[in-house]
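The methods section describes the discrete structure representation at length, but only in general terms. The central task, working out the structure tokens from the amino acid sequence alone, is never made concrete. Nothing conveys this as quickly as seeing an actual entry. For illustration, here is how one protein appears when written out as sequence plus structure tokens:
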Amino acid sequence: MTASLTQPIGRLRLGINIDHVATVRNARGGSYPDPLRAALLAEQAGADGITAHLREDRRHITDTDIDGLVEGLNVPLNFEMAATDEMQAIALRHKPHAVCIVPEKRQELTTEGGLEVARQENKLAHFIAPLREAGCRVSIFIAADKPQIDAAFRIGAPVIELHTGAYCDYHAEGRFDKRDAELERLRDMTRYATDLGLEVHAGHGLTYETVKPIAAFPEVMELNIGHFLIGEAIFSGLDSAVRRMRALMDEARNEAFGTGVA
């Protein structure tokens, strides 16, 4: 048993990414639907935080959205951003509760993988230092790979978010042997990172079908989920979608550890 497993198992936090509410709005222009309204609905349904990714090309979330979220939220904002001078300046102006550094490619449809930390340690160490000094909780979005975890630890990032996309893709494709192997890798690297003293979050591609095995990892403190829940909201409403995800996360914790979280 690792040292991390001796700690009490607490309630798993749920962060809701509202980027794709803005995607729908931007498809037609105007101000509807409003990402802030979606964020407030998610709060009421049980979200512990709101995630928004301000991309370089402003394809969904805009600067005005960030202004509104900073002013209007009652739960923490997790500001996802690339490691650029422009985004650093915006983060330092707003000083959100959390800043998550993610890789960003102009032509990608969504974030395709984890940040390459090991090859740019010096740059990233200097990049995150002012953010930490400003009081932001800095996390690094990475693959579940030991060299990347080690590098994130060395640069002084207190939090990592592990990319769960491959695990979810294998499940959707019915490649269950690969899915199970990826789940085991995520489990091992979660334990490894926690034993280094890092706080571990996870996200990308999680659905009702894939969330419970990840939620059952005792070391994971937070899940960030967006696209799937915004899609489900079309059919069941955002309140229902968030509440169902929240319930599945709590069930996973209770079934694994009998924690009685509510």
